[in-house]
Amino acid sequence: MNTFTKDHTPAHIVKMFPKASDLFKEHQIDFCCNGDRPLKEAFAQNNLDGDAILKELNTNYQGWQANDSTVDWGTFSISELVDHIVHTHHAYLLEELPALGEFVTKVFRRHGADQPHLIELHRLYNHFKVEMEEHTLKEENELFPLLKEYELNPNEKLLQQIYETIHKLEKEHDVVGEDLKEMRAITDGYQPPVNACGTYQITYARLAELEDDTFQHVHLENNILFKRI
């Protein structure tokens, strides 16, 4: 599917593109209990500019579909790789971590008493969130400026400083990798329970998307960017 239309249902769209739930929440479009009716009905009922919403939805969806694995990163300079990581993966985390955190908390509060694994999921997610927020700041404030400087003015002293910084950051990658591994294990591969509510399903879908993006993010750094140095 290349684009969504007004005849698609919110439930179907969110299944295909979990982050659409943010846009629907913004415009008070029900994608859960009444999510099986066409978008055009929600547009009419809420007196919304359907064309503008569809345009934003499809623009976001096309960007989401873009896959780093199709790009030959070996042809990119260090600065180009750094800028891509910041503007793609760091920007994604800046937007997604707090938004997804609300979903994780909502599911935990609603279902945690009956499903104890959600208590651990809530703890793991928030640990991952804090680690990644601090980690990306370190990269942007400490490592990435050094890499760009080294590209312009390579020298042994600067290289040693870069090595030491990379070593610390790779250890942090290992920590968040363990968080992701544990979250996948306790959620049975992000498979929601039978008859799970829409919020529950969206939370798991977005956690799976977060995992995918983080794997690509860390791959670009550990196996491509850092190897350049």
UniProtKB/TrEMBL annotation:
Q: Which InterPro entries match?
A: Hemerythrin-like, RIC_family, ScdA-like_N_sf
Gene Ontology cellular component terms for the protein in this record:
cytoplasm
What residues does the Hemerythrin-like domain cover?
A: 83-228
* Protein name as it appears in the record: Iron-sulfur cluster repair di-iron protein
Where is this protein found?
Cytoplasm
GO molecular function terms attached to this record: metal ion binding
What is the species of this protein? Virgibacillus salarius
What keyword terms does UniProt attach to this protein? Cytoplasm, Iron, Metal-binding
